[in-house]
Design goal:
Layout: H1 2-6, H2 8-21, H3 26-43, H4 55-63, H5 70-83, H6 86-98, H7 104-119, H8 123-140, H9 145-156, H10 166-175, H11 179-207, H12 231-250, H13 252-260, H14 269-294, H15 301-325, H16 331-348, H17 354-387, H18 390-398, H19 404-419, H20 425-431, H21 433-442, H22 447-458, H23 469-477, E1 483-484, E2 491-492, H24 497-520, H25 523-526, H26 537-549
Antiparallel strand pairs: 1-2
Helix pairs in contact: 2-3, 3-17, 4-17, 5-7, 5-16, 5-17, 6-7, 6-8, 6-15, 7-8, 7-9, 7-11, 8-9, 8-23, 9-23, 9-24, 10-11, 10-20, 10-22, 11-22, 11-24, 12-14, 12-15, 14-15, 15-16, 17-20, 18-21, 19-22, 22-24
Length: 626
């Protein structure tokens, strides 16, 4: 027993691993492990029984955490958009735009995956939707099977890192930073990761063109009556939209100055991008609406299709993120606004009925309950673990690693990479992050950078062969046996599990490369954050002491007889809580709060002078003359 008492924290952590390996659900494993070791710890006098009295307060704190309300809001927003047919429309439209290019369908999958990530925030929804819709099309036109499977699975995992991501909300709560800062920090790395995916497909199109063929002409459905493609008007609208966004970005400081009514010298890059993009896409939508309403015929079928399918969800995303980045709304309020906007869009397009809405609400409830139960279990475990000085054990274990902060980050990311083989990102966020964040902060590591870094790393949990959840989701919808294509009538071969695993590996390596880039260049995350205000507490303390020592200010009595008159014992320079001293009679402002009398008493000694008629005495009273 002495060994258990001396090593209670590591024994408890090992006990948690045993609970998990027994196959119990994670939430109940965490809670059961915490309660079991709480009982053992009390019996062995490791900590007092009063530790368990803290548990109700911790659980009440979870229930009253406004930040976590953003989880069901953003989940509902994404599921409503997904169930209203947005994914099908986006894949069909973007596929037509990029179809004539080699690798165009893979590029469409990546771009639509990024867009779905910014709306759904749920990996399963993105992967299953794109697997059902785009995988048969890619196989129909001769795409390499591993590449098609890998592109779909990897683009679905972008929901982990692109704001408004659910994992970033959880990460912000666990490291004690604001969700807005976490979104800003993840903005640049998220779109860099999308760019790396695109670069990989482009390189394949150059060096292995047979793997990524272009769509044949007969598959390009959006054509004009004269046979033209309609790219000219689409290019014109895009150029006008991009030009407007560029002008807005260049003059964002002036826009902020006009909006806030005070001079703004600079604006963070992420705010510029989101607000400028919002203005650009709003202009494109306005042009399309005017063209259709007045029947001007200026836009081609392709341009109208792209505008009406692509712009509304983009505008919703930019409005939600823009209000969060500008500080107009909290992430919880932004999520609520996004959910309402998704409902309006779904009903307006007549693609959402009450049955689909009930399904979306049921799925949202399940996912939110799943997260809350894990959080409750993790809170029970962490309370007992902290009472047993577990954080000190973790700190001693990790703070003396060779290489300082860099060595710590490398070891932590390697550990998270391997833990992600077995644990979901929710489980990693609630179990591992609370143990690592205090050590990172002590080593001087910015916790927003640390959180974004771990979020990128946790993406790999969805692509790990053989346990990656995105691979399981894709396997559930990919053809497992030969089938006849409904368009060409050809017999198509199935997609094997090994082909899915093989296709995921290149994208998994890209994600790990992105982790290395973030470790080497932390400014990719921290550069988007506002500079912290430096506060010199010593200087503030000295200034307060000087203010208190001034003879005519503060709460004390006046220093001498001369201060018994006007301005005696002031709160500031006149009047106050102090009493005037014996001596001369009090003037019109004696004992005043301000200049018209107040909480202080009058003088003692001499004749008390009444206040002037235009300056009533207020709350104070005058002492009678002796």
């Amino acid at each position: 027993m002495e060994f258990v008492v001396a090593n209670f924290a590591p024994v408890m952590f090992a006990g948690l691993i045993v609970f998990l390996l027994l196959g119990f659900p994670v939430a109940f494993s965490l809670g059961a492990c915490g309660l079991f070791f709480a009982f053992v710890g009390v019996q062995l006098d490791v900590f007092p029984p009063s530790v368990l009295a803290w548990l109700p307060q911790r659980l009440i704190g979870i229930m009253s955490n406004d930040t976590l309300l953003a989880v069901p809001f953003f989940t509902l927003m994404g599921l409503v958009l997904e169930r209203s047919g947005m994914a099908e429309d986006l894949l069909e439209t973007v596929g037509q735009v990029f179809g004539p290019l080699r690798g165009g369908l893979a590029l469409a999958v990546i771009f639509v995956g990024a867009l779905l990530a910014a709306t759904t925030g749920v990996v399963a929804a993105s992967v299953i939707s794109m697997g059902l819709i785009s995988l048969p099309i890619m196989l129909r036109y001769g795409y390499d099977r591993p590449l098609a499977a890998g592109a779909i699975a990897a683009s679905g995992t972008l929901a982990q890192i692109i704001p408004p991501s659910l994992v970033l909300i959880i990460m912000a709560d666990q490291v004690g930073r604001s969700v807005g800062d976490m979104y800003k920090g993840a903005f640049t790395p998220a779109f860099m990761l999308v760019g790396l995916y695109v670069l990989y497909v482009v390189l394949l199109a150059i060096f292995r063109p047979a793997c990524v063929p272009a769509l044949p002409p007969q598959a390009r459905t959006f054509r004009e009556a004269n046979g033209s493609s309609g790219y000219a008007s689409l290019t014109a609208v895009m150029a006008l939209s991009i030009g407007t966004a560029t002008v807005l970005a260049q003059n964002m400081a002036a826009v902020h100055t006009w909006w806030l009514g005070r001079t703004v010298q600079s604006v963070p890059t992420d705010e510029k991008i989101v607000v400028a993009a919002c203005g650009g896409v709003a202009l494109a939508l306005l042009i399309a609406l005017i063209n259709r309403g007045l029947k001007l015929g200026l836009l081609s079928r392709l341009a109208e299709r792209v505008t009406f399918v692509l712009i509304p969800p983009l505008l919703l995303i930019f409005l939600v993120l823009g209000t969060i980045f500008l500080g107009v709304a909290t992430p919880t309020e932004g999520g609520a606004m996004g959910a309402v906007g998704a409902l309006v869009m779904g009903f307006a397009r007549r693609r959402l009925d009450w049955a689909l809405l009930r399904q979306a609400l049921a799925a949202t409830t399940k996912l939110a309950s799943f997260a809350m139960f894990i959080l409750i279990g993790a809170t029970i475990f962490s309370l007992v673990f902290q009472a047993a000085d577990g954080p000190l054990w973790v700190e001693r274990l990790l703070s003396d690693l060779p290489g300082g902060p860099a060595g710590f980050l490398i070891l932590v990311n390697v550990m998270v990479f391997f833990l992600a083989f077995f644990l979901d990102y929710f489980e990693l966020s609630f179990i591992v992050v609370p143990l690592l964040a205090p050590v990172a902060e002590k080593l001087g590591i910015d916790l927003v950078w640390f959180g974004v870094l771990l979020a990128v790393n946790m993406q790999t949990s969805f692509l790990h062969p053989p346990f990656g959840f995105a691979l399981f989701f894709l396997r559930s919808v990919a053809p497992a046996s030969p089938y006849v294509d409904r368009v060409t009538g050809q017999l198509m071969q199935p997609v094997t599990t090994m082909q899915i695993y093989k296709g995921a590996i290149p994208f998994l390596l890209i994600q790990l490369f992105m982790v290395g880039v973030l470790i080497a260049f932390p400014q990719l995350v921290t550069g988007s954050l506002e500079a912290k205000a430096e506060v010199d507490l010593d200087a503030i303390g000295q200034q307060m002491l000087q203010d208190l020592e001034q003879p005519s200010g503060g709460y004390g009595d006046a220093a001498d007889e001369s201060h018994g008159g006007e301005g005696a014992g002031g709160y500031g320079s006149e009047g106050g809580y102090g009493d005037a001293p014996a001596g001369e009679s009090s003037g019109s402002d004696a004992g005043g709060y301000g200049s018209s009398g107040g909480y202080g008493a009058g003088t003692e000694g001499g004749e008390a002078a009444p206040p002037p008629e235009d300056e009533p005495q207020g709350y104070g009273s005058e002492a009678p003359a002796e």
